[in-house]
Write a structure and sequence with these properties.
eight-stranded antiparallel sheet, binds pyridoxal-5'-phosphate, single chain, 333 residues, globular, 28% strand, 6 helices, nine-stranded mixed sheet, D-amino Acid Aminotransferase, Chain A, domain 2, D-amino Acid Aminotransferase, Chain A, domain 1, alpha+beta
């Protein structure tokens, strides 16, 4: 069966669906991967997921999955918090992700989303202990926005961040996104691009779907993992690039709201948003309102790293096709 394109009059054409996804051990045609409507909503209660990017490098004509190890490690940690076991080990999931990308013949930047949930007709609200989850992996084209020069306008949300004893933010859980959704809906209603969320102690935690850094006097500062953040892979990558390559020291400490207003630079980072400069917070201009010097250098370096064009970080890039790969890749395959 071929995927269909739905076009509504007056709207942009709907995204073409991928040809294949991966479901519990096998590649399945997109249109055949259905669940019964009675399960709508309930399976999502226990669902945890990952957002991973794969970047195309035109030089080697290969697709590189960025930081796959860190993402799979976090997926297993999210499952553990849910008391869910995985029927697939790390290597099987790596091969599954690569197989979805190859089956769809992607030759451009891609966003990959593995998701694990309690299937088999078990409503997600029931207590379930150490039972295997089902795993589905989807992938769709998603061109990188790195270096487009855009700056985001942000507000400090009137909603607070969920906390570890309520809905642990450390788990990348679908249900946690209700918090993000309140925040982003409020931002949009008030004309902002992203909301920044304070935790219940009133300190900065993160943006609605991304972590946050501020720059003050040459130091990059980011809230610690105990501030109600999702332990972001990109946040950790930024830390290493700043310290090892850019000569910018990084400090993890609590950040207060008014520090956002007086910072030299503010940016948010995550797999989906990549690295996004913030030009204003609550209509206070940040720096000169444009892309600051550190964000600019960081973005350039980050783009080379994710496309496997920086020799020292090649172990972060897992090749999908292993074509004319001129770099010595140390990735496990
Ligand atoms: C996924 C996510 C991030 C970013 O994490 P990365 O590992 O960098 O993609 C930040 N905040 C929330 C709430 C997230 O779900």
């Amino acid at each position: 069966m071929t995927s269909q394109k739905v076009e509504k009059p007056g709207s942009t054409p709907a995204r073409e669906t991928p040809r294949y996804l991966w479901r519990s051990g096998e590649l399945v045609e997109w249109d055949k991967a259905t669940v019964h409507v009675s399960m709508l909503g309930w399976t999502a209660i226990s669902a945890v997921f990952e957002g991973i990017r794969a970047y195309w490098d035109p030089q080697t004509e290969d697709l590189y999955i960025f930081h796959l190890d860190a993402h799979l490690k976090r997926l297993f940690q999210s499952m553990k918090i849910m008391r869910m076991t995985s029927p697939f080990d790390r290597d099987q999931l790596q091969e599954a992700i690569s197989s979805v990308l190859r089956a769809n013949e992607y030759a451009g930047d891609v966003y990959v989303q593995p998701m694990a949930y309690f299937g088999g007709g078990i409503p997600g609200y029931l207590a379930v202990l150490e039972r295997p989850g089902e795993v589905v992996i989807t992938a769709r084209p998603s061109p990188s926005n790195l270096g487009n020069g855009k700056v985001a306008s942000c507000n400090v949300s009137s909603w607070n961040r969920i906390s570890d004893n309520v809905m642990p933010p450390r788990a990348k859980a679908i249900t946690n996104y209700q918090n993000s959704r309140y925040v982003s809906t409020e931002s949009q209603a008030n004309g902002y691009d992203f909301g920044i969320i304070l935790n219940q102690q009133g300190k900065v935690s993160e943006a609605s779907y991304a972590c946050i850094y501020i720059l003050r006097d040459g130091v990059a500062i980011t809230p610690p993992v105990s501030s109600g953040i999702l332990e972001s892979v990109t946040r950790q990558v930024v830390k290493e690039l700043c310290e090892n390559d850019l000569g910018v020291p990084v400090v993890e400490r609590e950040v207060e709201r008014t520090e956002l207003y007086i910072a030299d630079e503010v940016f948010i980072c995550g797999t989906a948003v990549e690295i996004q400069a913030v030009g204003s917070v609550d209509k206070y201009q940040v720096g000169d309102g444009g892309v600051g010097p550190v964000v600019s250098r960081l973005t350039d370096l980050f783009e080379r790293v994710v496309r496997n064009q920086e020799h020292s970080y090649t172990e972060w890039c897992t090749p999908v096709y292993e074509k004319a790969n001129t770099l010595t890749s140390t990735s496990k395959g």
